[in-house]
Amino acid sequence: MKKITDSFLYLGYWPFAGSFGFNTDILATNPINLSVVLGVLVFFGKGVLNDLLDNRKQRILKTIRNSEELREGAIEQLEKARARLRKVETEADRFRVNGYSEIEREKLNLINSIYTTLEQLENNKNETIHFEQQRAINQVRQRILQQALQGALGTLNGCFNNELHLRTISANIGLFCLGR
Q1: Which of 41, 52, 86, 113 has its CA 20 to 30 A from that of 31?
Q2: CA distances from 27 to 41, 54, 125, 132 (A)
């Protein structure tokens, strides 16, 4: 077994130039080399590693804060959107109800207007019929009166002789002159 002083890294002993080679005793050289490498890494790398870890930690915390802010903003926007949706749904329901009632009201107004127009047309028709009946009755009366007058004149002309005719004319002219 070799001594620790035979180790490659032993600082007090330097081998001759001609005896350069690999130390194959793993148990003697590896723990010492590893402890030296780890010591150097810990001593020099601790600050760098701490800086890297602190930077990473700060980025992670910043990302978490940003995510929380975005989440809160998204929740706020979601609540606003839900409120707008409720408002729009309420307004749509109101328009739907008002629209249906407005349609019903307009339908009833139209029906009432049609009934009123039909009543006016019926009244106009009845007035026209009554007017035409009165006109026809008046025409019949005029014809009857004309025929009666013509018949009376024919009878009178047949009954009158010249002398009676002249006396009647004279009497009528006398009445006419007295009336003035």
Answers
A1: 52
A2: 22, 37, 131, 141
For the segment 59-111, what is each residue's pLDDT rounded down to a tens digit?
999 999 999 999 999 999 999 999 999 999 999 888 888 878 888 888 999 99
Three-class SS state of 7:
coil
> Does 17 map to a domain?
no
Q: Whole-angstrom Cα distance, residue 46 to residue 40?
A: 9
CB atoms within 10 A of CB 123: 10
> What's the length of the chain?
180
CA-to-CA separations, 163 to 98, 155, 157, 168, 175, in angstroms, rounded: 95, 16, 12, 9, 19
Taking alpha carbons only, the member of 108, 127, 130 closest to residue 119 is: 127
Residue type, 120: Q
Q: Which two tokens stand for residue 92?
A: 């749509």
- Our CA dihedral for 87, 92, 95, 98, rounded to 10 degrees, sits at -90
Range of the domain at 132: 34-148
- Does some domain include residue 59? yes
Residue 164: pLDDT over 90? no
Number of domains in the chain: 1
Phi, psi angles (nearest 5°) of residue 167 = -65, -40
pTM over 0.70: no
